[in-house]
Design goal:
Largest sheet: none
Structural class: mainly alpha
Number of helices: 11
Radius of gyration: 25 Å
Order of helices and strands: HHHHHHHHHHH
Strand content: under 5%
Mean pLDDT: 77
Oligomer: single chain
């Protein structure tokens, strides 16, 4: 027990940090909601119309932001632009202006639709923006972070390092924890029995992972404290090893979850791309039609 528990160090965490699920991505949704709320408050606090000087300038800024959004896909397809700066900078610009353009257009319209053409242009832009947020959520699960290269399943498995030998060496004194983690790994990585079973497992795996993590961490703490009292370890050592053990359990569960869901996220990303591109072209054509109609009439 003494030797096994000594292998738990809080410094073990960075080794798997890149393979953990990027849960902070959920913060993007409330952030965008807050920006939309700020745009709505601005449209109510300041008196202007879509055709006034301020309204026109907001629409112009939104149109320019929309054009900037297209620079990133153009850079990927035009050899002349590929040498201009790092790809991650262009991608960051693409995402930032992909959020800024709809916000400016919403402020320009004061959250009102004045004509059918304007309604189509606004609706298509909001659909593209929502699609982009969904795509970003999927993107980070099959790439090295937000700006990294695309992963393969073999690369992800190597990064996560789901080693049963390492798990046994660290958890041999807590056989129930080892058995529960092994059972979760086997069930999560088993081949699904059909399409519906695979979809159900994909949707419920997060809840199962949280339950297993909580159950194993509680059992680990109980067993560890009994052994710590038997060996007479001081409080600082107990806290350090408890934190390291719980971190190992959390990282192992998160790694199993990400590997199990990786192929499904790959398919979702391919489907997303098929749907996103037509929406982008619809947005572009409707925006051009709106600008022409405004200036012609």
């Amino acid at each position: 027990m003494h030797q096994a528990s000594a292998t738990f160090r809080t410094g073990d965490a960075p080794r798997r940090e890149r393979a953990r699920e990027p849960s902070h991505e959920w913060l993007l949704v409330p952030a965008v909601a807050a920006l939309v709320g700020a745009a709505w408050l601005f449209s109510r606090a300041v008196r202007y119309t879509s055709g006034s000087a301020l309204g026109y300038d907001l629409g112009l800024a939104g149109g320019i932001a929309l054009l900037v959004v297209f620079l990133y896909p153009l850079r990927k397809r035009m050899r002349l632009l590929r040498g201009w700066g790092a790809s991650k900078g262009w991608f960051a610009l693409h995402m930032a202006f992909g959020i800024a353009a709809p916000l400016l257009i919403l402020a320009h319209s004061r959250f009102h639709v004045g004509s059918l053409n304007a309604g189509v242009a606004l609706a298509s832009m909001l659909l593209v923006a929502a699609s982009g947020i969904v795509g970003r959520f999927i993107y980070v699960r099959i790439h090295h972070g937000l700006y990294g290269t695309r992963l393969s399943l073999a690369q992800l498995q190597a990064e996560v390092g789901l080693s049963s030998g390492e798990m046994h060496s660290k958890l041999s004194f807590a056989p129930r924890v080892e058995r529960w983690l092994g059972g979760f790994q086997a069930a999560a990585l088993a081949r699904p029995r059909g399409v519906l079973h695979g979809a159900w497992r994909f949707l419920t795996l997060g809840a199962r992972a949280r339950w297993v993590r909580h159950r194993c961490a509680r059992e680990f703490a109980h067993v560890y404290r009994m052994h710590a009292r038997a060996f007479g370890w001081d409080g600082a050592r107990q806290r350090r090893h408890l934190a390291g053990g719980k971190a190992f359990i959390a990282e192992f569960v998160a790694g199993v979850q990400r590997v199990a869901q990786f192929s499904r996220y790959e398919r979702l990303f391919s489907l997303w791309h098929v749907l996103h591109v037509p929406l982008v072209w619809m947005m572009l054509f409707s925006a051009i039609a709106h600008v022409v109609a405004v200036h012609a009439y």
